[in-house]
Amino acid sequence: MITYLGVILSLMVVFFLFFNIVGIKVVLGLVMIMVPFVLLFNHLNMDFDEEVVFGIFIGIVLFPLLVWYLNWLISSLRITIFVVFFLLLFLVFVIKRVIPQNQNV
Question: Total domain count for the chain?
């Protein structure tokens, strides 16, 4: 996990050098989209590499879809993004509380 933090920080530096503050926003946006799904896949006893890859791809598909549909109800796009992010985190929290994690012996 420390390796991935180093990769994210180095990506932020490279994107900052090429694209200024917009590059940092892009990297932070990808991380924000990925985090709830990585936490959800952590509950499924997957390797961390698999969690990150599946989290990126499923996050790129589902997060904008949920934001787009919820934006019909909430008129502000920025508020909708944060509402969807916290709803996904809440969903992960509920799933971890309701469904016990499989214990492989």
Answer: 1
Count, in order, helices (H) and strands (E) of the chain.
4, 0
CA–centroid distance for 14 within its chain: 21
pLDDT value for 99: 80
- Can you give the pLDDT at residue 1? 65
Domain assignment present for 82: yes
Question: For residue 51, which of 32, 31, 37, 61 has the smallest C-alpha distance?
Answer: 37
Q: Does any domain span residue 57?
A: yes
Tell me the pLDDT band of 105, cut-offs 50, 70 and 90.
very low
HEC readout, 63-86: HHHHHHHHCCCCCCHHHHHHHHHH
Going by the DSSP 8-state scheme, the letter that residue 104 receives in this structure is -
Question: Does a structural domain hold residue 38?
Answer: yes
How many Å from the N-terminal Cα to the C-terminal Cα in the chain? Answer: 24
Domain-embedded: residue 21: no
